Structure formats: structure tokens, C-alpha cells
Amino acid sequence: MAVAQVTKLPISEYLSFEHRGEMRYEYHNGEVYAMAGGTIAHTILSSNTQRLIGNALTVAGKNCISLNSDVKIEIEAAHRYIYPDAAVVCGKINESTMIKGAILNPRVVVEVISETSADYDRGAKMRYYLSLITLKEYLLIDQDKAHVTLYRRHEESNLGSFHYADGLEDSIELKSIGVILPLRELYQNVDLEDK
Q1: Mind listing the pLDDT tens digit for each residue in 70-89?
Q2: What is the sign, positive or negative, of the torsion defined by CA atoms of 2, 31, 15, 88?
Q3: Residue from 6, 24, 164, 169 nearest 85 by CA
């Protein structure tokens, strides 16, 4: 998702923006960014992901909840508040004491990537998310082709492994929540460049 820089502000002024609710803003260590709208493919993929995960968790009777892009994640170590495209929390949701509506304990975070956001989503943003000890898996979904990349953390360290699924006949397993995402369903109604 593209972002437009607003200005550098103290967190108290960021909180004021957030409480007005006119627009969504991310906070990055004093810098505030207005969140620009995404593409149709981005919106469909975010919705499909949240729905598929949510339905699978319900059917399995898991004590987890699938959240959409309206929730923000507090990355305390990096002084950031970031909106993922989807997230999963298992057990009780731990809400930030600083900002209402920001969560502290995602188990899974999902980002839909584009050509312009890929470097950030695979680089700095991934490092921010991995600073959260609760995060077990980070899923990147390509909006232009049927391809996903999953980073899976092993135990309580930042050591992990990458897993890939490529093509509409493939699927990816989110082991930390016991959910398999078939790419054909994930990319349903998305106009792909190379089907």
C-alpha cells in the first residue's frame, strides 16, 4: 500500500489524528504517514485472506480471531504503530495502553505486496513485526501474480524459514494456527496478469 508522508509529530499529536478518525495514519518513531487507498486486487486479497482464515478458525473451533486492516499493531521496540492487511490473535487480545485499538500480540500478520511496497514489506516492516515475540508467521501475498511467501519463526527466536507457494494449484500452510490457504481461493475474483 502506498503511503504519503505528512510530517514529524510527537505521539500526542498522532493520537489526536487517530481519535478524529477522518483518515488512517501510521506512526514511525515520530514520523506520521497518511495511509493511501489500495488497488482493487489489494482489497480483494485482504478480504479473501481475512475471510478464509476466519472461516477455517471457526470450523476448527480454535480460540483465535482473524482481524482485518482496521486494527493497528503496536511495535513498542521500534516506536511504531502499523496497519497490517490482516492479522490473527490467539487467546485474549492484548490492547495497547497507549492507543485504543492497537494490539500487542498478533500470532500471524499478513501483508499484500505490490511492486512499490515489496521492499519495505520484506525488509524494515518484517523486522518490526519480528520484534514481537508473539509473532509466529508473516505472510506476504503478491497482488500481481499467484505467489505467496511465508516466514515461519522457529520457537522463541528470530531464526526461521521461508516457504513459498506459486500458482493457483498450490497452497500454503499457516502451521501456527492450523490453517491451509489454497491459492485458488485466496486469489478468487482477482484479475491476475498471468493466470
Answers
A1: 899 999 887 888 989 999 99
A2: positive
A3: 24
